[in-house]
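Entry 14. Structure prediction run on the chain below.
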Amino acid sequence: MIKKMFQHFDYTMVIPVLLLGAFGVLMVYSSGIYWADWLGFAPDHFFVQQSMNFAAALVAFAFAMLFPYKAYAKFMKPILGISLLLLVFVKLNGTVSGNAQSWINVAGVNFQPSEFAKIGVIIYLAAVFSKKQHYITNFSRGVVPPLIVILITFLLIAAQPDLGTAMIIAGISGVMIVCSGMRIKHLTALLGLAVIGISVMLLFGSILSLEQLSRFDAAYHPFEHSEDDAGYQMINSYLAIAAGGLTGRGLGDGIQKYGFLPESYTDFIMAIIAEEFGLIGVTLVIGTLCFLVFKGFIIGIRCKDTFGSLLAVGIAGMIGVQSVINLGVVCGLLPVTGIPLPFVSYGGSSLVVCMFAMGVLINISMFIRWKKDESNGHEQPEPHSVFQQGEGAYRTTHR
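Output returned:
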C-alpha cells in the first residue's frame, strides 16, 4: 500500500522543494559565518540552527504529504481560532526582535505566529468559499464575513508592527478571492477599496510609523540615506548583485557578507546568492520558485474539489507573493520589510510553514493523480491508513 501511495506523489514538486531547502541551509552557512562570530556565537551557529529547522520542516513536509487534505476543512475553525489567539497573545506578551513584537518564546524556541496565520487564513478561506459556492454572488452573505476575518488578521499583524507579513496576508486573500467565483463588480469594488486603503496608509504618517515611512524613502533614494540602516542595506545589496556578474565569485567567496550587508543570511540572502553564484544562480533559484508557483496554480485548476482547488491556489499565491516581496526588497523596488525568501532564508517558522504548505499541495496533486488512474480504468484501492478520512476516503465532492 505504501508503495502505491508513493507512485502517485508528484516528484517534480518534491525534488525542487528539497533542493531549495538544502540549498538554503548551504547559503545560510556561507552568508552567516561572520555574523555568527560577530554576535558571539560559534561560526557554524546559524548553519546548525538552520539544519535543525530544516529537519523540523522535513517532518512537517512528510506529514502534510501523507495527511488527507480534505480533513483540514473539518478543523478550519480551531485552526483559525488558534491562529488569531496567538496573534493576540504575541501583541500582549510577545518577544521584540527587529523593532517588531512578533515572536513567542516557548522553552527557548522562538516562533512567529504570523507565519502560521498565513496557512490558517488559506485553510479558512478555502473552506468558507467552498461552502458558500451556491451564494457566493451574494455580497453580504458570501463575501463580507470572510472579509471581516481577513481584516482582523491583517490588523493584528500590522499592529506588531509587521507590515510585510500583513501585506502577504492581503495578497494571499486577494488571489483566493479572485478565484472564489465572486461577481466581477464585487471584485472591482474590493480592488478599489484596497487601492484607497493602501493610499491612505502611505499618505498619512499616523497609520505608518516614522521608521516604516523612512524605509520607503530609503528604498527609492538609498544614496541619500547612506548612513541609515535601510539605505546602507540597499547600497550594499546593489554592490553584491553587481559584483556577481554572470557566474559569481564562487561559493564562500562573497565579500558583502563580512559585515557590509546586514541580514545577509535572512532577508537579503538573494544578494549573497547573486554575488557568489551570479546571474546563473539567481535565475535557477527564481526559476525553481516560479515552477512551484506555476505547478500550484495548475493543481488548483485540475482539482475538481472546490476546497482542494482553492487550497492549492492559496498556497501557490503565498509562495508567489512572498517571493515577489522579498525579491522586490533586494532589488530596491520595495522598502525593507523583513520578509524571508521562501525555503532559502534563515528562519524556522517560515521554513516549516512553507514546506508544510508544499506538502499539502503535493497531497492534493496525489489525489488528482489517483483519481485520474481510476478514470482511465486502472482501478486503485483507496487508501486505508494515513489517508483514511472516514468512510469513502478521498472521494471527490463536486459542488
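The first strand starts at residue 95 and ends at 97.
Filed with the rest of this week's runs.
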